[in-house]
């Protein structure tokens, strides 16, 4: 806890939050939103397709969208770490933050399962298709939870 | 515009909506979800027009557009609610007007595609080389939507009018 406190009270945090420049906090926050749009946007397309939206779109071509998913995730992991440092002590005790992190990792993991079980397989059995649909619905629900939790975190700021 | 803004904010509708403490955060969450659906669905078509996903028919990529349009209307509705509740945050902000301009650009571009290019685009063989005009329309659309996102997110930090 003392460690998180020292991060939140560090010179870096003071400079990052106190600066009048748009290139510190506002830009990192905006990158976090751009990364979200890419990560969640691509995930939504993948899962909608698994749920039979755009049936003509070949399932195996969804593989390319995972590159966008991982690129968006990389942007948000990097920007998220910076944002966390500046509020480390507050977030470390914020249950909504843990709900957000938990739902992100679970949503991503379900996305990976859908890829391994369905997208990467040439001729998936009927049962796999059904399971994948359940995984996709769950993943979409978890992304919704992650976004709502992320937004609500702004209201729990001290 | 300041008069209009002050008038709108003094109306009973504006005051009572802003008085609902849950409404603003709820609209924000919906606005974020809507932008993901919009950029996901529209971005897929944009990328296809730019030449990605070669071999996939444009018709099959367009199947995600009703979702993108639903995302757009979610954000239009929640956006209008923000405007009614706190007009001074937006109407006097240059960045907000830039955002509106980029939404207009994206809309005109989409209309140009639908009315002038869509028919020939749908007739293209799935593995055909994308004509330059379609590549440009796709790139302009993708750029505009990210510009809309940028202006929206930077709104509180870039030359806020108050």
What do you see in this structure?
The complex is a heterodimer of chains A (about 160) and B (about 160). Chain A has one domain (about 1-155). Chain A is about 80% helix and about 0% strand. Chain A is built from 7 helices and no strands. Chain A has helices at about 1-10, 10-20, 25-50, 65-85, 90, 95-120, 125-155. The model of chain B has no long low-confidence stretch (mean pLDDT about 95). Chain B is built from 8 helices and no strands. By secondary structure, chain B is mostly helical. Chain B has one domain (about 1-155). Chain B has helices spanning about 1-10, 10-20, 25-50, 60, 65-85, 85-90, 95-125, 130-155. In chain B, helix 3 runs antiparallel to helix 5 (about 65-85), helix 3 runs antiparallel to helix 8 (about 130-155) and helix 7 packs antiparallel against helix 8. The chains are: A mainly alpha (about 160), B mainly alpha (about 160). The interface of A and B includes residues 55, 65, 150 and 151 of A.
Following the backbone from N to C, one meets helices and strands of chain A in this order, namely: HHHHHHH
User: How many whole angstroms does the radius of gyration of chain A measure?
Assistant: 18 Å
- Major sheet attributes of chain A: none
Order of helices and strands of chain B: HHHHHHHH
Beta-strand content of chain B: under 5%
Mean pLDDT of chain A: 96
Give a short account of the largest sheet of chain B: none
Helix share, percent of chain B: over 70%
Chain pair forming the biggest interface? A-B, 34 and 33 residues
Quaternary structure classification: heterodimer
Q: Please tell me what the overall shape of chain B is.
A: elongated
Structural class category of chain B: mainly alpha
How many separate domains of chain A? Answer: 1
Taking Cα atoms only, what radius of gyration of chain B do you get, to the nearest Å? Answer: 18 Å
- End-to-end gap of chain A: 17 Å
Number of domains of chain B: 1
How many beta strands in the DSSP annotation of chain A?
0
